[in-house]
Amino acid sequence: MANILIIGATGSVGSTTRRYFLNHTTDHLTLMARSTNRLGKLDDTRERVVAGSVSDRETLTDALQGQDAVFAALSGNLATMARELVDAMDEAGVKRLIFITSMGIYNEIPASLGADGNLDSNPMLQTYRNAADVIEASDLNYTVIRPGWFDNGSDTDYEITKKGEPFGGHDVSRESIADLVVRLTHDEKLGSRDSLGINRK
Predict the structure, then answer these.
(1) C-alpha span between 99 and 87 (Å, rounded)
(2) Between 199 and which of 59, 81, 105, 148 could a Cys-Cys bridge form, CB atoms 3.0 to 4.6 Å apart?
(3) Which domains are present in the chain?
(4) pTM score, two decimals?
């Protein structure tokens, strides 16, 4: 059993991952979100809620207490959020961070999959790349996850590519991302200080 903080717990990936933890582990979850009323029914024996954003240091510090790992599925100014999170985790002494960005931030999508999805052709990805750069410069035991376009498939049939390897496919299910997050939080050596692409096989 581990203590896991999910930041962005009401988003599409965060909520799927929350449910996956509840269904496949005995872990205790801290759910952090700005609009906690969207969380719905809670399991009071395994879940607690913290309302707020990563830019609120006091709230974030409270959420980090006693955590074994942090999973962040955020949107917005990701580089700023990543800096806030890295600083707060250093202060709290929490080392394991799993952070969602996007495929294409290293121009790793091959032409066969549509290279126009790479950062060189899509400046919208710059905030994801900036966040990854912040995390990779930290001393945390991080894993950056770069998913393909995610969908509502129920499959967990996925493959992983490492930084520097060409991306393997265009799509992936949120369920697959959740499965990978659970694996990463339970194995501190898996994906340690690495950036992992994930796509459907």
Answers:
(1) 14
(2) 148
(3) 3-200 (3.40.50.720)
(4) 0.97
